[in-house]
Design brief:
Elements: E1 3-4, H1 8-15, H2 19-28, E2 30-35, H3 41-48, H4 51-54, E3 59-64, H5 67-75, E4 82-85, H6 89-94, E5 100-106, E6 119-123, E7 139-142, H7 147-158, E8 167-170, H8 176-181, E9 187-191, H9 194-201, E10 206-210, E11 219-223, H10 225-230, H11 232-250, H12 255-265, H13 270-277, H14 288-303, H15 320-328
Amino acid sequence: MFKFRTSLIAVAAAVGFTASGFAASAQDELVVAAASNPGGLAVFVAQEKGFFAKNGVDVKVEIRNTGSELSKGLRAGEFDFAPAAFTNLPAALERGLDVRGIVGYVGAAFEKPTTDDVVALIASKDSGINTVADLKGKKVGVTFGSTGDVWLLQALKEVGLGRNDLERVNTRPPSLVSVLDTGGVDAVVAWEPFNFRMLNKVAGSKVVKRGGDLVCFCAYLHGNPDTVYKDEAKTQKFVDSIAEAAAYVRDKANKDEVAEIGTRFVNMTKEEVLAGLDLWVYDPRIGANTAKAFRSAVDLLIEQKKMKSKYDPARYLDSKFIRSTMERHPEWFSDLGAAS
């Protein structure tokens, strides 16, 4: 786990803060969680390049390995804001999770309701797998409940196969490369940087399928209503910071620097970060297609019997903060496409 904390104690001592003054400073700090992969680059860059401080918000960044750890931490009050993927979030909302999504973390859902080039099916050299149809009777490593898992089920459906036509092996993200390398499975469904690692480490491994607009590999930063609306000015500063950082990440002139920043926050090489930069999408906007992506995720979860009924995306998404950012800082969005 990586923690980035400004030393408030040292600052307090230097300027002679009283105990009550220090408590007020600590109370004003926001704790923002991110996943341990390149999806969190906007958060990492906002911290490292000082965009949080520039926009007037004091932030500590926490890193977690899985979506479930992020959700548990938010529920336990460890974080003020954390990301969650659409492919599993609605089920948690139906079960009572009360949060509001206020800014995009990763994905291109504003432009179109599907975006999944970061996901791929990688097969071993001797697996005999050259198409998705060849997965019948094979072992496939995938993280159950992840966006990759949903993508796999949709890819199977495209070729007339179902989950019972192969053996899905539940594999935690850190083990996705090793399970293919040791022959524990015939193929793996993963995202970056794991795909890049597999192709470089597992001799003869190959991409069988990448993307295909099967799902929305997208996530949004959210917090509970008390956090979001208690101090809306602070929430706005946080959203501004993420939007400015995302623009910095997207600027190709900054690729090397952004990759270096990524290596300081999570266990990735610079080459691994660079390999995924053109596949991950850092678009903080919320719009009509975002709602469509959410509804599609709900439909899939109902089909998989993980949800019982429809869930209105308006109960989760609140676009007013990012709309304000877009109105005041159009330059941070000028490189992005319009909604389709």
